[in-house]
Design a protein that fits this description.
By secondary structure, the protein is mainly alpha-helical. The chain has ten helices and no strands.
Length: 254
């Protein structure tokens, strides 16, 4: 129990709550770079998934490119970006991202699940629904915005939630290129063998990821009707089941 008492004492130390290395400032940096990456990833991924899903074309290419993006290690991409742009270098006009190398790595991490979920959500809409909307005199843009998008929204939001939690968790790597964020507590605690500090940093990251997931879940509940939420949950479960069968790493071992 002495270890957890030390963790409690660490949180109770006022010095850990003030200054540039204090919890509030590190949390703000963590949220800043995560939010910047998610904002740009949404702008890039959702239009691609929506258009390809609406047209039902290029899906194989989009999903394969998305899978390649998932296969690239975030740490490796972060190091490459740091070597290209420098550890602290943030190009003019991009100061809001915090650390440009970290921003690049997190954006690349967030795009694949959003493209995949958006495309699948749009492409799996019943053709009869599309035809009925067209029969009512809707043009392609109206079918997309008034019919397809609301139906696909549960699955789209599932992709956004998956991406957001992954970004918040992976942003801890920013400390490896001398940026801030809550990963700073983990890395500094590791180097100094200050295990209560290291544990506190990991706990704060986990709490932040849970809060992000809950916030997006509440947002999804607010913007998606009850009937569509149930249908979206069913589709998500079916896709996860297919992924388990297709992915040898997650398939049950006999």
């Amino acid at each position: 129990m002495s270890f957890f008492a030390d963790v409690w004492d660490w949180f109770g130390d006022g010095a850990n709550w003030t200054g540039e290395e204090g919890i509030p400032n590190l949390t703000l940096e963590h949220v800043q770079v995560s939010a910047a990456a998610m904002f740009v990833a949404v702008l890039l991924a959702l239009p691609v998934g929506l258009v390809l899903g609406h047209l039902r074309r290029g899906g194989i290419v989009a999903i394969n490119v998305s899978n390649v993006g998932r296969a690239i290690p975030s740490l490796g991409l972060l190091i490459v970006a740091a070597l290209i742009w420098g550890v602290f270098d943030t190009p003019t006009g991009f100061g809001w991202v915090g650390s440009f190398p970290v921003f690049i790595a997190l954006t690349a991490l967030a795009i694949p699940p959003m493209i995949t979920n958006t495309y699948v959500g749009m492409a799996n809409i019943d053709a009869d629904v599309r035809e009925a909307a067209s029969g009512m005199g809707m043009n392609g843009r109206q079918v997309l915005s008034r019919v397809e998008l609301p139906i696909a929204l549960p699955l789209i939001m599932a992709g956004v939630r998956t991406a957001a939690v992954g970004v918040v968790a992976t942003a801890t790597l920013a400390a490896l290129v001398s940026f801030g964020g809550l990963g700073r507590l983990i890395w500094d605690g590791f180097r100094a063998q200050d295990y209560p500090k290291m544990f506190a940093g990991a706990l704060l990251v986990a709490v932040l990821a849970i809060l992000v997931e809950l916030a997006l879940a509440l947002l999804q509940r607010a913007i998606v009707s009850r009937g569509l939420r149930r249908g979206g949950d069913r589709i998500v479960r079916e896709i996860e089941a297919v992924d388990t069968v297709l992915d040898p790493a997650t398939a049950p071992q006999s």
